[in-house]
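Hey team,

Filing this mostly as a record. A colleague (T.K.) asked me to run one chain through the structure pipeline before their review meeting, and I want the input and output archived in the tracker in case anyone asks later how it was produced. No errors, nothing strange. Just documentation.

Input sequence:
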Amino acid sequence: MFQSPSTLLPPGLLIALFWALVVACVVAQAFIVRAVFRTLPTTPTSNAVPAPRRWAEVVQVLLPIVGLVAVFLIAWRALPLPIIP
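Output structure:
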């Protein structure tokens, strides 16, 4: 019925795919972090719109990074690594 990806693809290809996705996520997250730190205003532009709290913006950027690291560690442990004799 359903085969796991580890039986469909060779371990070397799975590892290469894993690292390619890690690099893609790191690049995307770096652009997100850069965008947040470049666009945070120091003073509100209008009295009707409250200024965002800098610490809240930083936490909202860092929490997904922690989540991604946890997901990648779990995925790495699930990969069928080749056993070298």
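Quick notes for T.K.: The first helix runs from residue 5 to 8. The radius of gyration is 20 Å.
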